Amino acid sequence: MEKRKQVRVVPFPKQPVQLQLMGNGFLDILVAQDVSEGGIAVRVPHKFDGCDIHSSVEIVVSLPGYKPFKALGKITHLSASKEAQGLFGLQFTQIDVKGKGFLLDYVKKLTSLRRMAG
Which of 32-36, 54-58, 68-72 is predicted with the least confidence, judged by mean pLDDT? Predict the structure, then answer.
């Protein structure tokens, strides 16, 4: 059963969504697997081994065609099988109005483009 409240979209391969993730003792540059208004799924090859992922993280989100914006979030565990593949969720806990607008616009744009192609 689907737990998510927001629509999630998968970025186009030639237009990746890039994230800079700064946490307690680590800094990563990652590419989003999917994006929603409430969070982003990322693949982390090192699976955050040895990192403190229980504190808040700072995120800089770069959506194609938009100015980068900052947000705060927390790393969430998706499932043991997804975690084994290095997949984690980033849930936004604080995001400014402009960033939220960019996210909403991006998700709507990709949803309608995929519908037209579909």
Answer: 54-58
| Residues 68, 48: Cα–Cα separation, whole Å | 24
Q: Kindly write down the DSSP assignment for every residue of 1-20, as one continuous string.
A: -----S--BPPPTTSPPEEE
Instruction: Give the other-Cβ count within 10 Å of 49's Cβ.
Output: 7
Q: Is the pLDDT of residue 63 over 50?
A: yes
* CATH fold of the domain at 8-116: Thrombin, subunit H (2.40.10)
Q: Are 71 and 92 in contact (CB under 8 A)?
A: yes
Mean pLDDT over 33-40 rounds to 94
Evaluate if residue 29 carries a pLDDT over 50: yes
Residue 52 DSSP one-character state: B
Domain ranges of the chain: 8-116
Q: What type of residue is 39?
A: G
